């Protein structure tokens, strides 16, 4: 009887170790939670929204325009922003209109710029690629330009420069908390 009980404990221990190992693999290489910190992605994402980061999607393809990505802004801090510019492109915002290689591009995720449409700062801040850190004429290979949706209140490529593909943790599109905001977001 004692031997049977000991074998049962050994089996439970093995099962627990396998479960912990699988959880570690999933967390490190596949999916991870992130909490939105601040208003930089309003109105799409709200402060304290909790999301799932898909860490493996960019193993198979590069980020696409308007993907919402999580990246290492520093060794202590991850940011969540939207990919706007891709390698080989010139990006500018003039009079609140996004231009890629001189052509206007619609940003359907941004609110209309009228006085009663929003309760947050909708200033978009005009800029061109040459004005951001690095003084580039086009986005180099292996980099993307990211912006927050709330352009008047976002620390993004306009201040920190272009983001290397190596800095990108993954893509995120699922808000899972709070319950009343559960949804897929993105273009």
UniProtKB/TrEMBL annotation:
Protein location: Cell membrane; Membrane
A Pfam family the protein falls into: Peptidase_S26
Ranges of residues in domain Peptidase S26: 9-177
Gene Ontology molecular-function annotations: serine-type endopeptidase activity; signal peptidase activity
Entry coiled-coil feature ranges: none
Keyword annotations: Hydrolase, Protease
Family: Belongs to the peptidase S26 family.
UniProt name for this protein: Signal peptidase I
């Amino acid at each position: 009887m004692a031997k049977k009980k000991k074998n049962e404990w050994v089996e439970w221990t093995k099962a627990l170790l396998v479960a912990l190992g699988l959880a570690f693999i999933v967390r490190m290489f596949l999916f991870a939670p992130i909490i939105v910190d601040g208003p930089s992605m309003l109105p799409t994402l709200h402060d304290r929204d909790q999301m799932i980061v898909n860490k493996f999607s960019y193993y198979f393809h590069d980020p696409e325009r308007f993907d919402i990505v999580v990246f290492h802004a520093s060794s202590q801090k991850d940011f969540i922003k939207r990919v706007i510019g891709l390698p080989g492109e010139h990006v500018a915002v003039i009079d609140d209109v996004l231009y890629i290689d001189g052509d206007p591009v619609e940003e359907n995720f941004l609110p209309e710029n009228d006085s009663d449409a929003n309760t947050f700062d909708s200033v978009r801040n005009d800029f061109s690629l040459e004005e951001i850190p690095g003084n580039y004429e086009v986005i180099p290979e292996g980099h993307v330009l990211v912006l927050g949706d709330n352009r008047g209140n976002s620390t993004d490529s306009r201040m920190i420069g272009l983001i290397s593909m190596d800095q990108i943790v993954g893509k995120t599109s699922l808000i899972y908390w709070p319950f009343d905001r559960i949804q897929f977001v993105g273009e």
